[in-house]
Amino acid sequence: MKPLVAIVGRPNVGKSTFFNRMIGERVAIVEDMPGTTRDRLYGDTDWNGREFTLIDTGGLELGTGIPVGQVGLTGQPGDIMDHVMSQAQLAIEEADVIVFMVDARAGITAADDEVADLLRRRATKPVILAANKADNASRRLDVVEFYSLGLGEPTDISSIQGTGTGDLLDRIVEAL
Length: 176
Ligand code: GDP
Ligand code: MG
Prior knowledge:
GTPase Der
């Protein structure tokens, strides 16, 4: 089995955009969890000759056309955060490396703080902080604010443009 790299983080930070950039047309394996619909996507990829399996947590809520705000186990808004936290907990249990993705345009949110607390307290495997949507020079400078999450250096990336993703992948395979 290849090492597992899980991408965690609140909805809309760009987890699926990064995953799709890495997995592309290759068919991803979908795993359903009880009570949820298709909430984890697995795809094999490699970087600098290191193979690993990337996991997109957070489900297909956008892909299904259902707005993020309406997804949940019982349809209540609180379910979204429960889902994010349970995916982060699952990543802590099974992943070899966790990529915690945040949104450089939005800055730190309460949800980011909550996920960061869990990762700081419970993760025994490396956690790499990726600040996505750092699409330009000024946004790349702004990502220093994410140091305050207490998870080390944020790597700025733009999953849409592809900038910084090589640096993030270098960090991922070094941590494997
Ligand atoms: P997820 O919910 O974390 O999986 O987020 P998605 O990958 O679905 O992305 C949420 C939104 O952010 C989409 O509209 C993406 O096009 C957008 N997005 C993702 N990555 C970037 C990026 O690097 N820059 C910008 N400007 N937008 C991005
Ligand atoms: Mg997604």
